[in-house]
Structures are given as C-alpha cells and as structure tokens.
Amino acid sequence: MCLDVARLNRYFAELALGTGAKRFHVSAVFSAKAKVAMSRFEPGSSIGYEKMHENINVVRRRLSRPLTLSEKIVYGHLDDPVGQEIDRGRTYLRLHPDRVAMQDATAQMAMLQFISSGLPKVAVPSTIHCDHLIEAQMGGTQDLQRAKELNEEVYNFLATAAAKYGVGFWKPGSGIIHQIILENYAYPGVMLIGTDSHTPNGGGLGSICIGVGGADAVDVMAGIPWELKCPKVIGVRLTGTLAGWTSPKDVILKVAGILTVKGGTGAIVEYHGPGVDSISCTGMATICNMGAEIGATTSVFPYNHRMKTYLEKTGRGEIVSVADEFKEDLVPDEGCEYDQVIEINLSELKPHINGPFTPDLAHPVSEIGAIAKKSGWPLEVKVGLIGSCTNSSYEDMGRAASLAKQALDKGMKCKAQFTVTPGSEQIRATIERDGYAKILSDVGGVVLANACGPCIGQWDRRDVKKGEKNTIVTSFNRNFTARNDANPATHAFVTSPEIVTALALAGTLSFNPETDYLTAPSGEKFKLQPPSADELPSRDFDPGQDTYQHPPAESGSVKVDVNPSSNRLELLAPFDKWNGKDLENMRVLIKVKGKCTTDHISAAGPWLKFRGHLDNISNNLLIGAVNIENDAVNKVKNQLTGEYGGVPDVARFYKANGVNWVVVGDENYGEGSSREHAALEPRHLGGRAIIVKNFARIHETNLKKQGLLPLTFADPSDYDKIRPDDKISIIGLKSFAPGKPLTAVIKHCDGSEESISLNHTFNETQIEWFKAGSALNRMKELQ
Q1: How far is CA 778 from the centre of its chain?
Q2: Which residues pair with 583 in a beta bridge?
Q3: What is the reported pLDDT for 47?
Q4: Which pairing describes strands 548-549 and 709-713: parallel, antiparallel, or unpaired?
Q5: Where do the record's region annotations for Disordered lie (predicted)?
Q6: Which of 679, 680, 632, 684 is nearest to 656 (CA)?
C-alpha cells in the first residue's frame, strides 16, 4: 500500500479539531479559527488510519486469522496491540478512542466530574450538543426560545465549561447529537464514544461509535486508556434489495424481534453481504442507532460507495480520498468468523411495527391490526410522530413527504395528530428550502425544534389525560412504558417514518398501506403509492444558522460559575472510600419485579432539569420500578419504621441512619439509556450493591465507575430466595479478585439464614475503583 503521509497528516490535523465542522459544508479550506485549534490537537492525538493500519497488522499476525470489520477498528485503537490479551467476550481491552461527544443532559455531570479531576484541558477532541432540554409544546421556534429562557443557567454553564476546557459547543437549536456527529464527525474507521446510548448511529458511516456514561467520557477526555470488554461479533448478512414500503428501519425492527432487548449484550453487530449496497448511508445509521435496543455494544457497516456519496455531499471529500487508500482496513477480511450469524433477505422483508411497551415485540404491519384487536390495544392512532435521532434524515423526510403529497392531492389531511422533528439545523433548513416542510405542515404536521423532544419524554402532551388508554406510532427507537408522554397507559409503537405517516393519515393501526385504501373527502377511494425520495438533496445541503461555538485559543480568563444555591447545578463531592470490611446487614431497599430500565431507575422528562444537581435528581431514584412486595411503583416499606414511603425517601432515611442498602433486580437490569445518574443516585443515597440476574452493558459499567458493586446471581433462581425484609451481607471483599465469586448471606426476619454465590465481572483496575470509592477518586489518587 502506498501511503501519502503528508496528505494523511494534513487530513487528521483538520479532522481532529473538534471544530468547526460547519466549515465542512462551505469549503474544504478551514477557517483561521479552525486552524488555531491544530496546535492543540496534533495528528498524534488521533490514532488515524496509518496507526490503525499498523495495529491491525500486529494483531492479525498475533491471532493468525482473518478479522471482522469490528475487530479491525477496535483492535486498531488498542493502547498496546503487542501485549494486549484478546479473547472475545472475556478480556478487557485498553483503547484510545479518537474523540468524545456529549449531549447536554449527560454533559452536565460529565463536565462536573471533569472539573473535579483538576485537569486543565481535554486531551482529545470533544464536543457538547444541546438537544435534550427542549420540550415539545407549541412548535419549533416557540419551544426553542422557551428552552433558552428556562435553561439559561445550564446552557451558560455548559458553554463556559466547554470554552474553559477546550470543548466544542453546539448551541440549542443545532440538532440532535447523533445527526450532528453523522454530518460532521463520524467517518469510516473512527472510534468515538458518546454519553448517549444511541451513539452507535455513527456506524452508518463505518465508525465504531459507543454509548457510555459520563465517567467513561472523563477517562477519555483525560487521555487515560479506556476499558471495554472485548466484544463478541454478531454478523447480520444482508441479501436482496430494499424496495417498495420496506425501509432500513424494518431491518433493525426485524433484528430486534430475533435477538430481543438483551440478545446483543456484549457484542458488536456487524452488517455485511450484497444487500448492504441497497441501503443509503443515513439508512445504515438508522439501523445502527436502534441497535442500542438489543443491548449491542455498537453496530457497524462496511465502507462503501453510499458512504462516499454522503461524505462528499456533506463537504468531506478529503476523507473519501484517504479512506479509499485504506479501504482494506474498513471492510471485513474474507473468511472472518462471527460468533453468531443472522441472515435477512431484504427482497422478502416486509414493513414492521414493534411494540407496545418494548422495542423487541415485532409484528408485520399487515398483521398489527388483528393482533391489536385480539390483545385489546387501542386501534385508533391518536398521534403519529416522525423524526428523532433514528429517522430524521433528508431521505426520511422526503419519503414521508411523498406520501403526504399524495394525500394532499386528494384533499386529505392526517386523521391523527402529526409531528415532525428535524434531526439537525441542516436538515431543517434543507427540507424547508426544498418544500418538504411545507408539505408535511400542510397535511397537518407540526414541525418541532431540532431536538430530541417526544422521543425522550420532552413532550407537553395535552390531548389525553394521564391513565387514559391510547395508541401513538413513532419513528423513534424506544417505547418503554410512559417514556414518550409520562402516561403509562399510552401504547407506543415504533416503525418507519413512512408507516407512521400512512397510519397518521388513516388514523388506525388496522390500516395496511400495501393493500388498503384511503377515502378522500370527495368520497373517492385511493391507494397510496410506495414512498420515494432522493437519498440526498440534488443541491448542496443548506447549513442553516451557524450554531457552533469553538473554544478560544486562550481560556485562562474564562470563568465557570456554579451558584451554591442553584437547584439545577451542584459541584460534586467525592464518594467515600471502601472501609476495608465486608458489607454487613444491608437492607433491601426494593426488590424489583420485571423490566427495570434506566427510565425506571432515573426518569427523564421533567427530571431532565436536575441532571446537573445530584442531590435533587436523586429524588427520582427508582420511582418507576415495580416493587415485588405489592406490585406498586414508588411504594416501599421502611424496615426501620414499618411505614411505607417513596423509594428515594426511604433511601434517604436509611442513609441518615447509617444503614447501607442493596437493590435486587431481574433480567437485563439497566437496559436503555446510558444515563449514569441511574448509577450516581443509588451511590449518593447510600446504596452499596445492585444484585440482579443480569445487567445491560452500559449500566453495569456505570455502577462500577461510581464505586458500587454490580453483582449477578450465580443461580438465577436465587432471586426468589430474597425477601423484601431480609438483611444481606456481602462476604469476601477482603480477598476481592477477578473471577472469584462473592458470597451473600441472607438473614430472614424469622431468624433463619442462607448463603448464595454472586458473580461479578470486575477486573483488577475496576476493583481499585471500588476500593477508592469511585473511578474518579482513583484517577485523583494516581495524579
């Protein structure tokens, strides 16, 4: 291979800016502001293709076998490719990701932790994206202005902290973090970590993008090697071609039905095969985005011409020419082996719709009406919602608009309420320029702000009362109970934007657009033709308003203020160290029954305002979890007083009285969001261990980072042995070691005792986190 090192270095110097990505859309020549940043982020701070190529060759020689694409990119970022032990599913890898991205809700705690570290600047390119704190209420312009006023204190903190510590800042209204990353920062072969579970969206551009908690982000921003359990690799081989009503979203809806919400845990899902080329780059991003719903570490597609086209259209042709030189590192080796292989023929794949209440309950659209009727689910569609980080591309909006235009031509509008969420300011400006926004508005749609909105519960919904049974259909990724509108009786279904639009027009789940007819106001019956749209605009994207703030070259005078009396922000105090003793006679705060996602552990919606104030947000600890004792939510017995109270109230009472406590949970505990608040809150309120049948990956790591003990039953049936009024002791901590189980002694209130074995996945480094009280404490010890 012939390497043009000068051009490679120039490219990586530009790419590593953390910068001015918007300048990509204007010219390949960077602004003076961007060039200033080159002195901070030299090419060596980003591994780059040349270093990745060297690492891959070292590992391939060591393993003496072909490598999957996932392995190439992950192992290409190893801290020590020569000495690193590599065993998929067992060993921990020490990695150097290229960059960090944080959304505003999680960035608050991440930056507070970074401030606590005492470091002067971030060591890798990093950005903050303001997308989570904008509530959908009236419409895009009004909602954005309202958010700026309500969140002024938080936005000011993030903007000044970003400027102080060398982090790029995307202002409110910029768009959703994952769309911004795809448009500006993702590229084939990059490794990026983001403080949001849907960071894998970037896999649509051949990137390894992984969702993490804020403490992981702090490690990377500090320049410390980041640990990841060596992922297994699930191969999804695609054949055939997408056509008609079938969309990229149907691929991941089908995969979710096959693997379930925990089937991808500990694995990277790698798509390959001849069918890949029939999917657009943004379509591939959709598939990777929702891979979070199967618990996957991330998902990725091989470098191809669809990615080239997208990179060129977003002003990044320089990346294409460099990536082409290293193409063999950006596709899987011939003959590589996967831990599991799923085969999907795209030509035979039918449109799907998943739900309600879980994203892996998959149904063909042609059958959902009958299934809903049999199950007692409401058939009337109250609201159709398109957009979100999963499905808000130009192509998505165009295909939805093509259906809306057919209805308008017949004088018809949506029977259901209809909302449209552009993924970025660039998408908003471009669909407005090209007429898509007007078509979607004319058919009855309300265009919301360029933000997460209803997808994460930021929706001031007023058309139904809380507790009223109803159905909504969305092109989002998640549909847990009460997630979108805080109403546990809302039956939320996830599907493609095209199917959402069709069902919003028909107003019922029983409508199958492939076979059924709509009735126009004139009485004419007509059938919707399959959606169609350009993959990318024929003209260049319109970048819209410039919403990016680059960190200043000199930030010594920048002051970051946190008002001690604020109820939104609070500086962090270190957690206490382990006292060197076993944890004895801990109370069971709650024994959770069934599904317990991070939404159950630390709710979003109205609680997002407290994401920068640990004590205040801890008032939502486990308020959505079901107590097995009484099948109630937020109602547990205080074992010291005998009275019932809210979960956080009882936790605070135990803490005030010096009583440690544990949580007992079921399967896939902590699935869903990457929010580390679900780990910070139990630690803050006196929790010491979380004992469950098994964990979701990100949450397990987050618990370790905060000095908690995430433990699993060696025998899952031991879950049944624990009673809500038991006392539990964790024995064996003095000899705590990797691979060595701990023992739980359960003391029942009748005086009897029994012992059970508890497994863990701690390695030596992580055990030091526990002993120090948290990973951040350990970082300070080593400074």
Answers
A1: 26
A2: 730
A3: 43
A4: unpaired
A5: 520-561
A6: 684
> Alpha-carbon distance 432 to 435, whole Å?
5
CA 5, distance to chain mean position in Å, is 35
Rounded to the nearest 10°, the torsion over CA 690, 696, 699, 701 is 90
Residues 199, 21: Cα–Cα separation, whole Å: 18
List Cα–Cα distances, 708 to 77, 150, 510, 676, 684, in angstroms: 29, 34, 47, 12, 10
Here the tokens at position 207 are 């990137």
Looking at the DSSP bridge assignments, the partners of residue 525 are 519
Q: Which long-range contacts (CB under 8 A, 24 or more apart) does 597-600 make?
A: 597/480, 597/670, 597/671, 597/672, 597/673, 598/670, 598/671, 598/672, 598/673, 598/674, 598/675, 598/678, 598/699, 599/480, 599/482, 599/483, 599/624, 599/672, 599/673, 600/480, 600/624, 600/625
| pLDDT value at residue 673 | 82
What is the rounded distance in angstroms from the CA atom of residue 589 to the CA atom of residue 679? 15
β-bridge partners, 239: 345
Q: Decide if 464 contacts 382 (C-beta within 8 A).
A: yes
Q: State the Cα–Cα distance between residues 493 and 781, nearest whole angstrom.
A: 48
Cα separation of 169 and 19, whole Å? 9
CA Rg value for the chain: 25
Q: Is the dihedral of CA 654, 660, 666, 669 positive or negative?
A: positive
The beta-strand segments (E) located in 308-443 are: 340-345, 352-354, 362-364, 381-387, 417-421
Active site residues: 131-132, 196, 478, 673, 675
Q: What whole-number distance in Å separates Cα of residue 407 and Cα of residue 441?
A: 12
Reading the block at residue 311, the tokens are 């990179």
Q: Using CA atoms, how far apart are residues 177 and 423, in angstroms rounded to an integer? A: 9
Q: What is the pTM of this model?
A: 0.90
The answer to whether residues 416 and 404 touch, using CB atoms and an 8 Å cutoff, is no
518 token code pair: 């709509």
Residue labelled with tokens 């390894």: 208
Coil, strand, or helix at residue 194? strand
Residue 604 vs residues 419, 487, 516, 607: alpha-carbon distances, Å:
20, 13, 38, 5
Predicted confidence band at 6 (pLDDT cuts at 50, 70, 90)?
Answer: very low
d(C-alpha 282, C-alpha 314), whole Å: 12
Report the C-alpha gap between 305 and 501 in whole angstroms.
Answer: 30
Residue with tokens 């407005």: 432
Tens digits of residue pLDDT in 418-451: 999 999 999 999 999 999 999 999 999 999 999 9
State pLDDT tens for residues 665-676. 999 999 988 889
* CA 347 vs CA 249, 250, 689: distances in Å: 14, 12, 49
Percentage helix, strand, coil for the chain under 3-state DSSP, each rounded to 5: 35, 20, 45
List CB contacts of 163: < 8 A, sequence separation 6 or more: 169, 549, 551, 552, 555, 558
Strands 525-526 and 548-549: unpaired
